[in-house]
Amino acid sequence: MSVVYLVIPCYNEEKVLPETVKRLTEKLESMAAAGLADPESRILLVDDGSRDATWSLISQYSKENGRVCGIKLAHNRGHQNALLAGLMTAREFADCAVSLDADLQDDVDALDEFVKKFQDGCDIVYGVRKKRDTDTFFKRATALGFYRFMGALGVDVVYNHADYRLMSRRALDALSEYREVNLFLRGLVPLIGFRSDFVYYDRHERFAGDSKYPLKKMIAFAVDGITSFSVKPLRLIFGLGLLTALTSAVGTVWSLIAHFAGGWPAWIAAFWSLWLLGGLLLLGMGVVGTYVGKIYGEVKARPRYLIEEKTGDRL
Ligand code: UDP
Ligand code: MG
User: Ligand 1: does its nearest atom lie under 6 Å from the Cβ of 158?
Assistant: First the structure.
């Protein structure tokens, strides 16, 4: 039997925690009964600097329920960093760790299959959503556009896989060697390699509380994913610059001819090319600036998370 840690990042999740803990505890019990999960398996709740009662709930549960343990991050560091904090903590105790969301949108009953694949020798098991009919049209369209765009930029992401995934201790050890600060686990994990497989599941609706991923965070997440894994935008800008330079050279010659032969005022061409070039320059600087900003972040190499407190018996 394997020691399985379920790693759950929680940000202001007081509304869903009671139900989540109940369901996951039952699940671990039934998996233990079925000989899939060792009794030492745990639910590891990571409080990502919540402002509500999340941490007091976690501490309370860890006292009442032997299966629950928790860590509290000193600040809100975002989903990806909270996940990493949990995985890196779990790696010391577990044979494998499964990451899933606190709102249980990811089908808990798929867990058996994850662990079975692990016991069959897989190091990484990706949960893949069958369909997206519980999402709003907007979320579906942006997600699809995002995967397409990432694919076009040459980033290897698993289609329709969020962060519901199992990683063996060996894979987690490998992950710990990646020291980047701009974390995008969905792009990083496929780079690790090892034997991997997929589990297909249906995604449910969030049963309480609101999404902690407003549009602003979604955009930041997408930009992180692209700029952390692809330098194609830089090359694109180079091509665009080349194209404009050529076009404006042609345009200048053409408008000079029109000026002398057809009496066009000379400033017309110059006026438009000014705007065009100005816009392109700003665009290019924006792209370069985004990467420079990332280099700044990586060079500082600040800790990706700080653990303030721990609770539970096996931590
Ligand atoms: N989350 C987090 N820190 C944040 C934002 C979100 O730990 O800053 C957690 C959140 O508690 C949840 C998971 O990340 O467990 C996914 O968030 P959510 O369900 O709100 O995202 P959605 O499913 O709407 O994309
Ligand atoms: Mg959710």
Answer: no
pLDDT digits (tens, 9 = 90+) for 153-169: 888 888 888 899 999 99
Looking at all shown ligands, the one closest to residue 20's CA atom is 1
CATH of the domain at 148: 3.90.550.10
Q: 8 with 103, same domain?
A: yes
Q: Look up the domain containing 288 and give its range.
A: 232-300
Query: Is 141 in the same domain as 276?
Result: no
Instruction: Calculate the alpha carbon distances from 221 to 89, 166, 185, 196, 308 in Å.
Output: 24, 21, 11, 25, 25
Q: How many domains does the chain have?
A: 2
Computed from CA positions of residues 82, 48, 147, 234, in that sequence, does the dihedral angle turn out positive or negative? negative
In this structure, the answer to whether residues 236 and 224 fall within a common structural domain is no
Whether residues 128 and 213 fall in one domain: yes
Ligand 2 centre distance from Cα of residue 216 (Å): 16
DSSP state of 109: G
Whether 118 and 256 share a structural domain: no
**pLDDT in the model for residue 41:** 92
Mean pLDDT of 118-142: 85
Ligand 1 and 77: CB distance under 6 A = no
Whether pTM > 0.70 for this model: the answer is yes
Q: Are 266 and 147 contained in the same domain?
A: no
48 ligand 1 Cβ < 6 A: yes
82 lines ligand 1 (CB under 6 A): yes
Site to probe by mutation for ligand 1, drawn from 8, 11, 75 as the one with most ligand atoms within 8 Å of Cβ, is 11
Ligand 1 center to residue 165 CA distance, Å?
Answer: 15
Q: Where are the alpha helices (DSSP H) in the chain?
A: 17-33, 54-64, 79-90, 111-119, 137-152, 169-176, 185-192, 215-229, 232-262, 267-300
Does residue 32 sit in the same domain as residue 161?
yes
Joined together, the tokens standing for residue 269 give 């061409």
Q: Which ligand is nearest to the CA of 8?
A: 1
Determine the residue of 58, 160, 213, 304 to mutate for testing ligand 1's pocket, defined as the one with the most ligand atoms within 8 A of the Cβ atom. 213
Please report the pLDDT score of residue 268 as a whole number. Answer: 67
